[in-house]
């Protein structure tokens, strides 16, 4: 079975060159001209590995990585940059990036890096003892059961307790997934918009985008005592989920 690779670069020549090189190696390769398009592709397709340019207008490479780490944490990522710096390299390592290459990287270096990334991914999936069928296979949280029996099924976007059940919209489900997976972490408004909605916005606009979404999710969570009032607003900063430790199933 061919490995699925996504090339993300705003330069058409670089994008085509990388696509051609990796197709010649026998991979199934798609491409995206910007970060927003890349995120939309990852939402709807299984991707084994991404090659991402760091400097792009709008959503840059590091911001793409942040979102993909939430959507598809088993996807390996190779970051390309023409402007290497120690600070960027440290950021890349913190974001779980497989490799960090300086442009223009020779084809042999690209091919070798992609090969190592795919081998690392295959070894990790084998260790997990799970096959990969669709981009949700490696999600960090799927079903969470709380102490009182409340069941949060994030794959189906449902919350159940006894005969009570509520359905979440895709955005509400993504927001709850991010908050539950990072209990106690304060997210800035802009960071949450990026992780949940998949696009960048200004610090001024982000709270206005989030406010109605958070309000709707809080209203649905209020049906369940163990979930009510746990999404806390940090004035002027963002939101945090504070609650009892959940048990992954």
Question: Describe it for me?
Answer:
The C terminus is likely disordered. The chain has two domains: 125 residues, Response regulator (Rossmann fold), CATH 3.40.50; 106 residues, Winged helix-like DNA-binding domain superfamily/Winged helix DNA-binding domain (Arc Repressor Mutant, subunit A, Orthogonal Bundle), CATH 1.10.10. It contains eight helices and 13 strands. Helix 7 crosses helix 8. The protein has a five-stranded parallel sheet, sandwiched between helices. The longest helix is centred in the middle third of the chain and has 22 residues. With 249 residues, the chain is an alpha/beta fold.
Write the layout of secondary structure elements.
Layout: E1 4-8, H1 12-24, E2 28-32, H2 35-44, E3 49-53, H3 61-71, E4 76-81, H4 86-94, E5 99-102, H5 107-128, E6 143-145, E7 151-153, E8 158-161, E9 164-167, H6 170-181, E10 187-188, H7 189-197, H8 206-221, E11 231-234, E12 238-241, E13 247-248
Parallel strand pairs: 1-2, 1-3, 3-4, 4-5
Antiparallel strand pairs: 6-7, 6-13, 7-8, 8-9, 10-12, 11-12
Helix pairs in contact: 2-3, 6-7, 6-8, 7-8
CATH architectural arrangement of the largest domain:
3-Layer(aba) Sandwich
Q: Report the biggest beta sheet as strand number plus sense, adding barrel if it closes.
A: 5 strands, parallel
Strand tally is 13
Per CATH, what is the topology of the largest domain?
A: Rossmann fold
Q: How many separate domains make up the residues? A: 2
Regions with little confidence, pLDDT below 50 for 5+ residues: 130-140, 245-249
Roughly what fraction of the amino acids lie in strands?
15-25%
CATH class value of the largest domain: Alpha Beta
Which whole number gives the mean pLDDT?
82
Structural class: alpha/beta
* Overall body shape: globular
What is the N-to-C succession of helices and strands? Answer: EHEHEHEHEHEEEEHEHHEEE
- Estimated radius of gyration: 19 Å
CATH superfamily of the largest domain: Response regulator
User: How are the strands of the biggest sheet laid out side by side?
Assistant: 2-1-3-4-5
Number of continuous helical runs = 8
Span of the ends, CA to CA: 30 Å
């Amino acid at each position: 079975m061919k490995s699925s690779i996504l090339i993300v670069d705003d330069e058409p020549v670089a994008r085509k060159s990388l696509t051609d090189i990796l197709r010649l190696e026998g991979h199934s390769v798609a491409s995206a001209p910007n970060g927003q398009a890349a995120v939309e592709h990852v939402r709807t397709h299984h991707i084994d590995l991404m090659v991402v340019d760091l400097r792009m207008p709008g959503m840059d490479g590091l911001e793409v990585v942040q979102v993909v780490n939430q959507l598809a944490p088993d996807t390996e990522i190779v970051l390309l940059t023409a402007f290497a710096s120690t600070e960027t390299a440290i950021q890349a390592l913190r974001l779980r990036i497989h490799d960090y290459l300086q442009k223009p990287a020779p084809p042999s270096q690209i091919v070798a890096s992609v090969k190592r990334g795919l081998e690392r991914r295959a070894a990790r999936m084998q260790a997990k003892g799970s096959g990969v069928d669709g981009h949700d296979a490696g999600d960090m949280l799927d079903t969470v059961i709380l102490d009182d029996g409340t069941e949060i099924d994030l794959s189906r976007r449902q919350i159940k307790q006894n005969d009570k059940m509520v359905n979440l919209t895709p955005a509400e489900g993504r927001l709850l997934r991010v908050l539950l997976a990072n209990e106690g972490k304060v997210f800035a408004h802009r960071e949450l918009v990026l992780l949940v909605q998949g696009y960048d916005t200004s610090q001024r606009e982000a709270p206005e985008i989030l406010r109605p979404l958070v309000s709707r999710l809080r209203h649905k969570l209020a049906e369940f005592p163990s979930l009510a009032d746990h999404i806390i607003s940090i004035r002027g900063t963002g939101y945090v989920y504070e609650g009892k430790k959940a048990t992954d199933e």
